[in-house]
Amino acid sequence: MIVLHASVAILGVVLLIIVLKVDPVIALVTGSLYLGLASGLGFEATVATIVEGFGGIMAEVGLLIGFGVLMGSLLFAMQALQRLVLVLLRVLGTRRLPYAMAAVMTTLFPSIYVDVQLVLASPLARSAAPKLGRNGLGLMGGAVTAGILVGYVFVVPGLGTISIAGLLGIPLGTMLGFGLLVGPLTAVLTVLVWALLLKRGFWNPELDEHASEALLESERVAEDHADEVAGAPGRSVPPLLVSLLPVLVPLVMIAFGAIAETAGFSNTFIAFLGNPVLALFVGLVGAYVLAKTSIGGDLTNEAMSKGFDTTGQILLITGVGGSLGAVIAATDLEGVLGGLFSAEAGAPVIVSILLAWLIAAVLHLAIGSISVAAITAAGIIGPIMGQLDAPAVIIGLAIGAGALFALQVNSNFFWMFQTLMGVSTRGALKALTFVTALASVIALPLIAALSLVV
Q1: Would the pTM of this model clear 0.90, i.e. be above it?
Q2: CA distance 429 to 438
Q3: Which chain regions cross the lipid bilayer (predicted)?
Q4: Which of 284, 304, 332, 357 is the most exposed place for a label (fewest CB within 10 A)?
């Protein structure tokens, strides 16, 4: 019955938002209440879990969201992201930009926290979208999805990748080598198929795009003042490379911390420098100082004010998304699923791959967390690895592919994506939920083919 109630809760949230046009905050809390009560948590425990889920997500990503959105608002006011898009378009061309973005993010940035990547990449994607035509925002949204999340489950040192490797006893060097074969190729093929679907009318800007008023107003303010900044006496935007330092420095700090931990030479000071919260705060301070000295105090304060408005909206939706995930986790659904699946000795490799993929996919659909689904699936399969006629690295990649499947409304990342990318819930279900399902399925034959040569 737990599986049924979880399915009803998730489907109910989707229907409330899409069919009845209920605000996502109300729909998510309603779904959380239903699942908690229907699964037997009780009145008190259900409400307590909702509160704890909200607080837990805020403790993890609250400051990251706040610092990142404020920094993005300041960079937008200094026209940094707009100028970067022009450079990328000039160097790569319009048609290559989404593919290059997906491949680079998958290969180079898995060490960066996925929420941080989204906060930093979404303004760039939104700025590039108009230059890609009617479906530009949908295409860039799919590229951001593939770039961030495919690397997260396939490429070291992505959190999902490292967790799977550790639980299955796969050497990180082996996981890195195979992940670099599967990850970038999966990301590029996903964007290619997604682009073909968009050309066939899968995206409707009138229904699938819906930026929050706070986000639109923040961008309008920056655009309205662009000419004022350029023409004001003694005021000019800094060079592009200097303007991007508030983004580049945090990325270097976080990546160095992750590499140091993976390589075994980390210490308390390196861990401090590599902490994502500190790194983004350093970026925010840098952006604030640059803005103050280039575009002036009035425009800087205006950008900060609009950033605060946007942050509040994002935090509330993200928090209640975390509440639903917490209630689902409290039902101990993974224990039920662990008893539903078993493996027979000597099962063919393809059966083992499909089994690992299916367990991780069902767990992700139910729990709403890629990392939790990957860790739980690896924990379920780990004890029976000796019975499977398949290399551990192949099973690990299959688990990663399954854990990627159909990220949807019970994940706080879904609501961050929906708000930061400026799409409707329907648009997020396409550019995020459908694209992650697409990437998950595309990866399967690649993994199966790889198993033939291992």
Answers
A1: no
A2: 12
A3: 6-26, 57-78, 99-120, 140-168, 175-197, 240-260, 272-291, 311-330, 337-359, 365-385, 392-411, 431-453
A4: 332
